[in-house]
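From the shared-data thread, chain only:
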Amino acid sequence: MNIYTGGTFDVLHAGHINFLRQCSDLAGSGEVIVSLNTDEFITEYKKKPPLYSYKERAKLLILLNYVNKIIPNTGGADSKPAILSVNPDLIAIGDDWLSKDYFKQMGFTKEWLQAQEIGLCYLPYTKGISTSDIKKRCNKL
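Structure, as tokens:
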């Protein structure tokens, strides 16, 4: 089974690694494909550039045994082009999205996913760690 997930992964931490491990477990003998947000999209969306460049973030992710392939999220807020480029069986996201509108965030609908025959899976979010928290800790140094 091929698993698609996406994100910024700007400050790689244990929560990210745990999530990607879960993706790998789901994929079995299939692949985990990470659609990595571009520097331009991050700057536009978050109103500030990432700490690490796309190339740096991609190098870190590909070193993990849990990631098989990295593609750029060239569609920005419309993730459909990146998803269609790899034709995954399943999209995996953290269950912290259960209380948010993931479909609006990603630029597609449940019906679009069904038409593509792609499933959506919510994986347990690792509590107690986040990129925002790490950045706050660094600002206190």
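The helical segments are 14-27, 39-46, 54-62, 80-86, 102-106, 110-116, 131-139.
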